[in-house]
């Protein structure tokens, strides 16, 4: 290809990739491809198009191409894999071109991220504008510079009583005439509606023939410095106008009415103050009840942990006790042998030697020497297990550590897993996919409570036997911990309520509904979030995302 053609391709606004349909290899790209995706041109020529377009529909499409089944595509959304592993949203088109009597596949793609951002921003702006027009307390009418109605809210048509048939005709002149005829000063009203390119702001009172009074304020609508229309706001001030007239008519009695109203307000204020004090009392009692419920949840969790720890401790303590009993008997036998040696020391005869040999054979002295060491090793191992379980419980609770500190969440997750192991070991296999988390600033005991709730909930969600996967990961600003199970999942209608206090799907007596609510509060106080993904009947995934550094004010809020 000539350098001029290369120059034209490299200045294209779209990424262009030419693909050999037989091998699916990229044979030519323009400069925008290397700039956007981050691959060197030489590396691209060594790649297949499926290395870039790796979604399932793309794989099927390119497999059809390999089988000489060509189909052109126009404006299809897709994902491109960049050199750094990121996925780029694109809109692509595919063409079949002939070169030297052989087909080639030309892929044209453009980055769709900014288009989506613009579309989302525009849609949000329009939605806000529509909501603003409908939620305002004024009737709004918008007219462009040509005198055409571009928008009106429902309140405007309602307060003017415009018939539906007239609205459906979209006859702007007829609508203006209908409005003007209802006003006593019709000419002024028509003049205002026609003066759409006037730069002045207006403020008028329209007295309608049915006795109502409308206040009309209008403002020019600009794009840059050019007037493109006018916005009219109508407010029904009939009641206010009548009230003002009534006030003017009763001015002589105003002082008495003010005193009466003042007395009423004072009475109302006294009643409000009493109600406020009553509400403060109720709020205080509610907070106390809430704290008691949280404490009950914590105590229930502690009891559950204590039962699990006791169960785990019983196993090593049992065989340590048994081994020590056996060791005692072995030691007594060895002492018998030692006594026999002492009795014949210095005067060994053949008979005595034979007697000692019989004792050795009776107690199997050689076996004792070998077994005593093994028993002691096994006993020490059991004691180490006891110490490890106790240490895990201590690490889980972080007794005496009420201030934030640098902690490794994977270590906390491990200690919590050991503490609740009795709840899990018969229900699920645990798979660990740790990402070597850095230490973060946090309140470790509180986060361990969150991990415990998620692990126990995962075990409870598995009815027979399943799998619980623990994953961790991090980037420059956050770390995350995932607990995924293969349990029964969460119903879609329940997903929005799982963090509500007292909400539970467990049977009566098996859950208070405070575990996830408490966990949500802890993570929120750490300036993090909990993400949930669940498919009913297949399982759930809870991800705890936390900042690596807590802001200074967090310490005061705990």
Automatic annotation (TrEMBL):
Q: What class of enzyme is it?
A: transferase
Pfam families in the record: HATPase_c (PF02518), PAS_7 (PF12860), PAS_8 (PF13188)
Known CDD domains for this protein?
HATPase_AtoS-like, HisKA
Which SUPFAM superfamilies does this one have? ATPase domain of HSP90 chaperone/DNA topoisomerase II/histidine kinase, Homodimeric domain of signal transducing histidine kinase, PYP-like sensor domain (PAS domain)
Q: Which GO terms describe its molecular function?
A: phosphorelay sensor kinase activity
Q: Which Gene3D superfamilies match?
A: 1.10.287.130, Histidine kinase-like ATPase, C-terminal domain, PAS domain
- What positions belong to coiled-coil segments? 244-292
Which UniProt keywords are given for this protein, alphabetically ordered?
A: Coiled coil, Phosphoprotein
InterPro entries xrefs? HATPase_C_sf (IPR036890), HATPase_dom (IPR003594), His_kinase_dom (IPR005467), HisK_dim/P_dom (IPR003661), HisK_dim/P_sf (IPR036097), PAS (IPR000014), PAS-like_dom_sf (IPR035965), Sig_transdc_His_kin-like_C (IPR004358)
In short, the EC number is: 2.7.13.3
Instruction: Describe the location of the Histidine kinase domain by residue ranges.
Output: 308-550
Q: Enumerate the catalysed reactions.
A: ATP + protein L-histidine = ADP + protein N-phospho-L-histidine
Q: Could you tell me which residue ranges the PAS domain spans?
A: 125-179
Q: State the PANTHER family in the record.
A: HISTIDINE KINASE, SENSOR HISTIDINE KINASE
Q: What's the protein here called?
A: histidine kinase
